[in-house]
């Protein structure tokens, strides 16, 4: 199938205009809840853009993280913040103006920098003439992985991916350190969850039919990353979203009984450890850090297949970390850090 | 030929329902009827639209198109479950928060946070144990 990128430029323009409108609206709205919803709409729009650029894996990560999980986390956080901005604070106005100045300066600098970038999909750009052909020609022969994106992500550029996983892990740690030290004596909770008996029947029925399929799909995305768009990050966020959906349709306690706090923490660290551990094992066997071919003798397979298996193992590590971090962020932010009651 | 006509009918009716949904969201007087328009219209139009796509795909029948059609069918199925459930959850939250609703007798349109509509709250819409 050939894909003419210029075919639907009107569609691109339309989506971009709608995204700008959403971004401005989210800033202009005073209610935090409304802003969170508009941010979700923005994420869905950028999903369309990515699907159109044929980056389906990025698109469904964005749909799961940007549109679903972030919106839910924003809503969960907004209940602990007073809902309306007071207008008459001159100090806050000053900070707001400072923020606008900084944002404008950054925007000008970044727009200036884009002039040096090659055009999108320009065949004469250095990346297209030197780097990409090498990956595209060699990836399958060297790693036995048909999906070049996965091969580049987890093998050729394994360091990047490992530290991305570490960044995700650090985010969960920071949220935990900040929130669990705060006292909650004066916190006010918007009781978003009605107390009426039996109101959740429809929600629970829908959750029961959707969540198992979601989790199987997450595992498929994770383990099929060698052959189709997907991998650790994508599978992890979908799996994490399934636990958040469980918490939304039942309640936080129910979800925490299924996936306990201790296990979440173990998974957060365990995924990163698995990734770094495989890298260190390769180092110990006399190869480079993350040089999966070192595992060939250990597993009794060819170097090519060892790289394929190594990619799978680190993807699983990334998936575990991302899934646990999403759930951990939700637990902490939705309950204000005390893990007792929340959205 | 017949299949083509079916596809065109499905697409046009899907578009029609989408337009009706949009008009409903903008024109209906209160929170509940707007969400109801969004939920019903969206679900039906998406279903009809994707149904048309499935027929269009299956015109040249092969294993490949059958697989894609199956995936589309699954999408239809989960939209059919998820969209009405989301509508139900939103309406239920509004009901619990006692968002005023529109009645024929009220002289003005009731919208969210409309305090003048308090009186219409007490005409049996809420069970006794939830008052106060």
Task: Give an account of the 3D structure.
The complex is a heterodimer of chains A (343) and B (132). Chain A has 343 residues and is mainly alpha-helical. The relative contact order of chain A is 0.12. Chain A has helices spanning 9-28, 32-52, 56-78, 90-114, 126-143, 148-156, 158-179, 201-223, 232-249, 252-258, 261-284, 295-299, 303-334. Chain A is 72% helix and 0% strand. Chain B has 132 residues and is mostly helical. Chain B is built from three helices and no strands. Chain B is elongated. Chain B starts with a helix and ends in a 36-residue tail after the last helix. Residues 109-132 of chain B have low confidence and may be disordered. Classes of the chains: A mainly alpha (343), B mainly alpha (132). The interface between A and B is small, with 10 and 10 residues.
Sequence-ordered SSE layout with sheet pairings:
The complex is a heterodimer of chains A (343) and B (132).
Chain A: H1 9-28, H2 32-52, H3 56-78, H4 90-114, H5 126-143, H6 148-156, H7 158-179, H8 201-223, H9 232-249, H10 252-258, H11 261-284, H12 295-299, H13 303-334
Helix pairs in contact in A: 1-2, 2-3, 3-9, 3-13, 5-6, 6-7, 6-13, 7-11, 7-13, 8-9, 9-10, 9-13, 11-13
Chain B: H1 2-27, H2 31-57, H3 63-96
Helix pairs in contact in B: 1-2, 2-3
Spell the H/E element sequence of chain B.
Answer: HHH
Oligomer: heterodimer
Helix content of chain B: 55-70%
Number of strands of chain A: 0
Total domain units of chain B: 1
Number of helices of chain A: 13
Number of domains of chain A: 2
For the record, give the distance between the C-alpha atoms at the N and C termini of chain B, rounded to a whole number.
Answer: 63 Å
Structural class of chain A: mainly alpha
Most extensive interface, chain pair and sizes: A-B, 10 and 10 residues
Order of secondary-structure elements of chain A:
HHHHHHHHHHHHH
Q: Given the C-alpha coordinates, what overall shape of chain A results?
A: globular
Rough shape of chain B?
elongated
């Amino acid at each position: 199938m050939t894909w003419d990128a210029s075919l639907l430029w009107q569609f691109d323009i339309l989506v971009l205009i709608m995204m700008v409108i959403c971004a401005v609206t989210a800033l202009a709205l005073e209610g935090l809840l409304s802003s969170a919803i508009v941010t979700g709409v923005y994420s869905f729009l950028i999903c369309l853009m990515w699907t159109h650029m044929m980056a389906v894996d990025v698109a469904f990560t964005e749909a799961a993280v940007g549109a679903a999980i972030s919106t839910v986390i924003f809503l969960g956080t907004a209940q602990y913040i007073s809902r309306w901005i007071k207008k008459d604070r001159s100090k806050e106005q000053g900070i707001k103006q400072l923020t606008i100045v900084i944002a404008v300066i950054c925007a000008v600098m970044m727009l200036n920098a884009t002039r040096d970038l090659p055009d999108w999909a320009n065949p004469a750009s250095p990346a297209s003439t030197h780097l990409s052909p090498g990956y595209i020609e060699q990836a399958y022969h060297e790693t036995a992985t048909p999906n070049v994106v996965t091969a580049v992500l987890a093998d050729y550029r394994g360091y990047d991916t490992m530290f991305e996983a570490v960044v995700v892990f650090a985010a969960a740690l920071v949220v935990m350190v900040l929130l669990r030290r705060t006292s909650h004596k004066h916190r006010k909770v918007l009781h978003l969850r009605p107390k009426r008996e039996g109101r959740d029947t429809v929600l629970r029925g829908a959750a029961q039919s959707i969540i198992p399929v979601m989790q199987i799909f997450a595992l498929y995305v994770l383990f099929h990353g060698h052959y189709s768009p997907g991998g650790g990050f994508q599978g992890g966020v979908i799996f994490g979203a399934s636990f958040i959906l469980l918490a939304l349709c039942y309640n936080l306690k129910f979800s925490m009984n299924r996936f306990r706090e201790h296990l979440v923490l173990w998974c957060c660290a365990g995924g990163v450890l698995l990734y770094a551990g495989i890298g260190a094992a390769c180092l110990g066997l006399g190869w480079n850090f993350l040089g999966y071919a070192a595992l060939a003798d250990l597993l009794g397979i060819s170097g090519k297949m060892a790289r394929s298996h190594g990619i799978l193992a680190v993807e699983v590590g990334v998936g575990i970390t991302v899934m646990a971090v999403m759930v951990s962020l939700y637990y902490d932010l939705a309950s204000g850090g005390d893990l007792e009651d929340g959205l | 030929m017949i299949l083509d006509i079916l596809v065109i009918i499905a697409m046009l009716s899907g578009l029609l329902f989408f337009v009706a949904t949009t008009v409903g969201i903008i024109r209906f007087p209160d929170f509940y009827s707007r969400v109801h328009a969004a939920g019903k219209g969206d679900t039906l139009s998406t279903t009809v639209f994707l149904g048309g796509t499935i027929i269009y795909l299956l015109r040249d029948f092969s294993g490949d198109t059958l697989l894609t059609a199956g995936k589309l069918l699954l999408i239809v199925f989960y939209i059919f479950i998820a969209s009405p459930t989301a509508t139900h959850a939103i309406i239920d939250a509004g009901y619990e928060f006692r968002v005023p609703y529109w009645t024929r007798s009220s002289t003005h349109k009731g919208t969210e946070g409309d305090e003048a509509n308090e009186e219409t709250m007490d005409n049996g819409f809420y069970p006794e144990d939830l008052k106060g």
